Amino acid sequence: MNETCLSFDFINDPGHGWLKVPFHYIQDFKIGSYISNFSYVNGDYIYLEEDCDANVFLMELNERGIEYAINDIYQENCLIRDFEYYRY
Predict the structure, then answer these.
(1) Rounded Cα gap, residues 46 and 59, in angstroms
(2) Angstrom distances, CA of residue 56 to CA of 19, 30, 34
C-alpha cells in the first residue's frame, strides 16, 4: 500500500454495515443514480449500505485504479439509522 492509498471506515452493528465515504466522491464519480435509498447521509458523508451500494463505489475505485484500505469499526449502538436516507 502506498502513501496515496485512500482509507474508508466500514461501520457495522449487530444487524448491518455501511461504508463511510465523503459525499464528494459520489458526485465526482457521477454514480449518484446507482446508489439506493438504503444508504444514509449526514453532513459531508454518505454511509453506503453494505449489500449493494458499497460495492458500486468500490467497483468504481477499482475501475479507476485507485488504491484503498477499509477499516472495520464495530458499534453496538450505531446512530447511522438515525441519519437522513440518501435521495438522488
Answers:
(1) 16
(2) 11, 11, 7
Half-sphere exposure of 38 (CA within 13 A, CB side): 12
Containing structural domain, residue 56: 6-85
DSSP letter at 86?
A: P
Residues pairing with 73 in the sheet:
11
Joined together, the cell numbers standing for residue 19 give 461504508
Assigned domain for 71 exists = yes
- 35-47 pLDDT, tens digit per residue, is 999 999 999 999 9
In three-state secondary structure terms, 25 is helix
The pTM assigned to this predicted structure is: 0.93
